[in-house]
């Protein structure tokens, strides 16, 4: 397989990575996004934070914030675990986009 001068093209088109400041958002997003499982994790589901912790391996602060719709940041692996938990609670497969909510 030949990719031509792909490496040189990538080096020319990429800018050095930099850390975003607390007030900066990616892609010019004006509104912060939150993981919000409240519409799936309802009282009738009878799932405690402790049981969810045992299922997912996530800490209780992360789970509590996601349950309330207040989880603003996390690792990629965490997002997939939360999506899987929400899918289980909803009884159907969900996408990552479906667990996010704008402020």
Helices, strands, pairings?
Blueprint: H1 6-13, E1 33-35, H2 49-56, H3 60-68, H4 76-90, E2 100-102
Antiparallel strand pairs: 1-2
Span of the ends, CA to CA: 46 Å
The ordered H/E elements are HEHHHE
- What global shape is seen? globular
Task: Provide the low-confidence segments as ranges.
Answer: 1-22
Strand content: 5-15%
Question: Major beta sheet, specifics?
Answer: 2 strands, antiparallel
Query: Which structural category fits the helices and strands?
Result: mainly alpha
What report would you give on this structure?
This protein has 103 residues and is mainly alpha-helical. The protein contains 4 helices and 2 strands, in the order αβαααβ. The chain has a two-stranded antiparallel sheet with strand order 1-2. The radius of gyration is 18 Å and the shape is globular. The chain starts with 5 loop residues before the first helix and ends with a strand.
Compact description:
The chain is built from 4 helices and 2 strands; from the N terminus they run H-E-H-H-H-E.
Throw out a few tags for this protein.
single chain, 103 residues, mainly alpha, two-stranded antiparallel ribbon, 4 helices, 39% helix, 6% strand
């Amino acid at each position: 397989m030949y990719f031509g001068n792909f490496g040189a093209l990538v080096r020319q088109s990429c800018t050095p990575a930099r850390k975003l400041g607390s007030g900066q958002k990616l892609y010019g997003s004006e509104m912060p996004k939150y993981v919000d499982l409240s519409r799936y994790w309802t009282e009738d589901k009878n799932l405690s934070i402790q049981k969810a912790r045992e299922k997912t391996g996530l800490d209780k602060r992360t789970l509590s914030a996601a349950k309330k719709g207040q989880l603003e940041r996390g690792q990629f692996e965490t997002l997939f675990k939360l999506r899987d938990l929400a899918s289980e609670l909803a009884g159907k497969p969900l996408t990552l986009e479906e667990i996010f909510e704008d402020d």
